[in-house]
Amino acid sequence: MSDWHYSVSVRSLCEFTAKRGDLDRRFTPSATALEGQAGQLAVLARRSPGYEIELPLEAVHGNLRVRGRADGYEADVNRLEEIKTIRGPVDLIPENRRALHWAQLETYGALIATDRGLAELELALVYVDADTQNETVLREKVAAPALQAAFEARCRQFEAWAQQEAEHRVARDADLNALPFPKGDLRPGQRLLAEAVYRVAANGRHLLAQAPTGIGKTLGTLYPLLRAMPTQQLDKIGYMTCKGTGRIAALEALDALREVSPSKSLRVLTLVAKEQACEHPTQACHGEACPLANGFYDKLPAARAEAVQQAWLDPTAQRRIALKHDVCPYYLGQELLRWADVVVGDVHHAFDPYGQLYGLAQSQDWKLALLVDEAHNLIDRARDMYSISLSLARVREVLASAPVSLRASLRRLAGELARLGTEQVEDYQPLKQVPDALAEALQRVNVALGDHVQKHPLEVGALLEFYFEVLGLQRLLDRFDTHSLCDLQRSAGRVVVADAPLNLSLLEDDEPVDTGEVRDVVLSVRNIVPGAFLKERFEGCHSVTLFSATLGPPDYPRQLLGMPEDTAWIDVPAPFPPEHLTVQVAHRLSTRYEHREASMDALVDLLAAQFNEHPGNYLAFFSSFDYLDKAAARLAQRHPQVVQWSQGRAMGDGARRAFLDRFVEGGRGIGFAVLGGAFAEGVDLPGTRLIGAFIATLGLPPVSPLQDQVRERLDALFGADHGYADLVPGLQKVVQAAGRVLRSVDDRGWVWLLDKRYARPEVRALLPAWWQL
């Protein structure tokens, strides 16, 4: 390919050519995106009226087009500025990071000098403190020819890689344009799903796809999106999973697709957790402590070059290449994210506040499309990402070993939590806002910890982890609104408030705090509607497809996740003839908490009758371990001939495998499990390994003051009678559990819904339409 063209951002060009030396991931307090915007506004307020901001600049060097936006230019003094909002002293910024900042500024300098015909230019690297808004300015006057020479040298250094990447893009797109489906013809339901995915990708829209087990959802979503990749000029596809087992299916499908592509050029990268990839978990991530961080950026080019030629970059391949070149496998994977075509990883990479895939997509201006597997889990996963709790016991644990400089602020925070816990009337107390005294105590701890980690950058461990916790709590409180709840929950456990006879009035000009033992109290910010945070994620992606066997009703995920109003919806018909699944409701049974003991004999008699009439393997799902244990004991008492085994409360991988290994072809027995647990979804027991399921619950959450608050908040936001707080998520769990029974078009089986409430119209409306009740 002789005639090639490649467009690169200033940031990417500089990151590729200017990063040198050690990997250094020691923590230094960083500014948030909002603080970065505030820092830029503070600088702007001090500049002259003619100060220009966000200047679009670009230049061509050979076949390379370099583009970007410079932060600010002050024409009356001929000064170009690069603004970085930071926390703490400038001298704590690692040298290689500061060199990168200068490289970006110098590159922008070359672009504006050429654009405006400038003979020379003053460059100013402006560091703005996020807390004080004070500026530290590093200045240098540079002649335009020197800036141009540095720019051209940088382009020459990148040029060979750019040509390789441009040629890869052409080869990849040619492969995908000719990509056949790897398994002959698409199945009927699979074709409907694939057509819907392709349509939304072609139109830059989003899709909610409810598709039952057995149609081949993984290939049915990956194949059309890969075919859309060349026509839509997508830079990246992210296949995001809510559970680890989904990554296995994705990689199997991608491997099959690569095998039928003409040149197997597609680059596939698996992102793994740091704790799974780290070779030296006891070492800090910097060159002085970890041998694989030492000289990381000097050794990176060779490792990167081998990796992109390898193209199939699962964790094993990443580790092999990394150790061959003496670099960290985890951070090699992070670097390769820039050069992969398809990225497979957990949903947090795209939706977490610090998700690497989404963050890079925004900074690099990638055209990104996402597929989210088992997406019915995304609401709860996202809620966890934007929720946090802090307990009095945790504060006391940190205080016990804290340096003297931190003890006063930690004691005050412990005292305020203890005071509130003592004063509240009920064990659960919702808060409209955090009381001022507690908010001030939390702020003081954040400031004290920030000062401490700035002065001790090598310190890692419990204190740093605690700083992340309180910093995360503070940031969520700063964005607190109706999308979240704030509450105090008092527990039965007791903690020592302070070391008697400490009196806080000796330390601060405030009221003394009682010492001694009090019940533990937990302050929580609980996200209820993650859409308040995820809306911008969907807006920042070209197309997002969420798919699962249980997504409906469509307004539920769309409203709670903050998806656009024009999000498309498809409900793919089941591939099974309805008569293959016999669904029956136990019209005389009630599994409500107050009725369980009275209905227990009838329940286990029904299990035994079904088992005796149609012998085979069954799963029986219950709302809790307590209910499960009682039912298993009663079945053993009344029907000892029925073989049974049960899920345990804390099962490791081996115990879970042993539980599933009991489901053999032609076997006979009942496995007892908890609805929503490890065996209620993601379990594949085809053929006669499983022929039926009993579901002795509607999956509703237990009654509690917290659940009442969740219901009230969702009703206030979306209207009453939606069932968003209980019925909808509960029945999604039910349908997921029932989905274990039919795994292929040849399977046949039974599902028993063990509660008379399943006959209600509002409940039946949320069950699959093809179920013949």
CATH topology of the largest domain: Rossmann fold
Structural class: alpha/beta
In round numbers, the mean pLDDT is 91
The termini sit apart by: 62 Å
Strand residue percentage: 15-25%
Oligomer state of the chains in this structure: single chain
Low-confidence stretches: 498-515
Write down the CATH class of the largest domain: Alpha Beta
State the total count of DSSP E strands: 24
According to CATH, the homologous superfamily of the largest domain is: P-loop containing nucleotide triphosphate hydrolases
| C-alpha Rg (nearest Å) | 29 Å
Task: Sum up the overall morphology in one term.
Answer: globular
Name the helicity range. Answer: 40-55%
Q: What is the count of structural domains? A: 5
CATH architectural group of the largest domain: 3-Layer(aba) Sandwich
Number of helical elements = 26
Strand order, biggest sheet? 10-9-11-8-12-17-7-18
The profile of the biggest β sheet is: 8 strands, parallel
Structure write-up:
The chain is an alpha/beta fold and 773 residues long. It folds into 5 domains: 156 residues, Lambda Exonuclease, Chain A; 183 residues, 3-Layer(aba) Sandwich (Rossmann fold), CATH 3.40.50; 60 residues, no CATH class; 141 residues, no CATH class; 187 residues, Rossmann fold. The chain is 43% helix and 19% strand. The protein is built from 26 helices and 24 strands. It has an 8-stranded parallel β-sheet, sandwiched between helices. Strands 1, 2, 3, 4, 5 and 6 form a 6-stranded mixed β-sheet that branches. Strands 19-24-23-20-22-21 form a 6-stranded parallel β-sheet, with helices on both faces. Strand 2 and strand 3 form a beta hairpin. Helix 1 crosses helix 4, helix 6 packs across helix 7 and helix 21 packs across helix 22. The radius of gyration is 29 Å and the shape is globular. The termini are far apart.
